[in-house]
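Whether sequence alone determines local backbone shape is best considered at the level of individual chains. The sequence in question and its structure tokens are set out directly beneath this paragraph.

***
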Amino acid sequence: MSFNNLDTLYRQVIMDHYKNPRNKGSIEGEHMAIDMNNPTCGDRIQLQLQLEDGVVNEAKFDGEGCSISLSSASMMTEAVKGKTVEEALEMSKLFSAMMQGEDVDPEQFALEDIEALQGVSQFPARIKCATLSWKAMEQGVEESEEA
């Protein structure tokens, strides 16, 4: 597949997650909520996590922002559901490395759609948009471990 075709496919995946977000809404019952924002561009995310016995039982988000921020939140919530906290944190580390331009094997991700965000690493101002929900997840897990 040529670079232009791959770029078009990635844009379509990002726009699909933006227009048809997965896991947007609220978790019923006991959960934690983490609010984060990116003051540079106005992205705002509220991530809700339900952790049970070291596993991300449920993950949902709400918020507003650019297509990169919201599609990344959609992809992240899909990817971490059912994963252990350790696996979710490892995915976050891999995603961060990918955003810094490091070579990361997409097979390491449970959701291949995440690879569509790889091109964001070429635009340093947009990296914070893509990583916002992942940072919220890391913060939520950290706070849960401290409690």
User: Anything to note?
Assistant: The mean pLDDT is 90. The radius of gyration is 14 Å. The chain has one domain: 3-146.
